[in-house]
Every structure is written in structure tokens, then in C-alpha cells.
Amino acid sequence: MEYIKCNNIALGYDGKIILEDLSFSVESGDYLCIVGENGAGKSTLMKTLVGLSKSVSGEVKLSGGVSRKEIGYLPQQMELQRDFPATVWEIVLSGCLGSCGIKPFFGAAEKRLASENLRKLGIDGLKNSCYRNLSGGQQQRVLLARALCAAKKLLLLDEPAAGLDPVATNEMYHMIMDLNKQEGLTVVMVSHDIKAAVNHAKHILHLGNAEVFFGTTAEYVMSKVGKAFLNSGKCGRCEE
Asked: What's the N-to-C CA distance of the chain in angstroms?
């Protein structure tokens, strides 16, 4: 079943066209990693998929019972956000806002879901802790738990391991892999870690100034663009 279909979309950033004629799809149960050079449009594409930005042209279509308010989204975390003065519980529970409808409060179902996701990510003991006092790895787990509260079928992650130490990075990638394989969530992730991308993803979307690739991970590893990128070490963070 197809969840996302992009047909010949063009993306713009800062008044300039940065990507044209992009077409790809995301199937139910997929794990798609978006990789590529800095400034190629990775984060802009993620914002377009969740409806925070509009494509300059082309069509982004959601299907398979997926609506944008039911997409779990973990954007890149800015330095200012790391100092947010709220408890872990408040942040995770806020991920249920989309399911509250016209209710002016969180009900028992939303609170159960938030508690379940805290437990699932191993941070239930931090429920009453202040977010700003947590380590980087703990903060990312909190934000992932928040995204899971919204994610009914689809989880979009923009560099979820950026800035984490190697141990926390490895833990984050394994949690995401488990969510895909064991929980059945469809994952679309921007990553600057090309090794992690080819180790975990089922499909790769490579955005580049010269060439765009979309296909299975095995096809990517054997492709001209994949070989060049894997051997170049160009996997720095996107600065769009």
C-alpha cells in the first residue's frame, strides 16, 4: 500500500529553486533514508511532506488512510529548543494534540498513549524531569516519544541522531529500526550518516546537485552515485 507519492515536484529555498522533477514513493512498512550533499533540499523536502512548506510545482499525495495530522514528525532540534522549560511529560503529551479534536483537554486515551511511549523508549523514569536538564540522547528520546504520540502509520525524522555521542547515536538508530520492524511504523529519515543509512534502510533517496537516485539500498550501493558518495565521506549535516 502506498502512503506517499511525489510526482515531479520542485522545491524552493530562500527564493531559489533547489530541486526539480523529483518523483518517488513510500510504501507501507518501508524504511526510506534521504541522503545527499549539503543544500540539496533534504530538510526542505521533509517540511513539504508534513505540510510545513509547499512545493513550487508538482504533487505530493498522501494515501492509504494517512493524513498529515497523523504523521509523527521529529524535526532538527535547534540549540534554543534544547533549553525548553517544560517537563518530559508535558512535551510527550503535547504530541497527542492532533488526536484531541475539539476537546480542550487531554483525555485518558491520550495519557495512556503518552505513558506507553515513555515506557517504550525507556524514559518513563524521567516523566517529571525538566527537559532542559536532560542529556542530548535523553532529549532526543523525549522528542521521539512525542512524535510517536502523533504517528498512526508514518514517522518522519530529520537527522534524529545529529549531535549525539556514538553510544546515543547507536541506541537511536536501533530504536528506530525496532519501531519499523516490530511496531510496523513506516519510517522516512533524513540522515547525514551514510553508513547507518545503508545498514538500516530498505530504500534510499539521494538528493544531489548533479544526480538524484531513488531505489533499494542494494541498488544504491551498486549505483554510480552511491559508490561515489560512499567513498567520498560527504555526509555532513544539511545547512539549508
From this structure: 32
- Report H helices in the chain: 42-49, 88-93, 108-120, 136-150, 166-181, 194-200, 217-222, 224-232
- The answer, as to whether pTM is greater than 0.85, is yes
Q: pLDDT digits over 20-78, tens only?
A: 999 999 999 999 999 988 888 999 999 999 999 999 999 999 999 898 888 999 998 76
What is the edge-to-edge ordering of all strands in the sheet holding 31-36?
Answer: 71-74, 154-158, 186-190, 31-36, 203-207, 213-216
pLDDT recorded at residue 187: 98
Beta strands 203-207 and 213-216 are antiparallel
Question: Is 234 in contact with 228 (CB distance < 8 Å)?
Answer: no
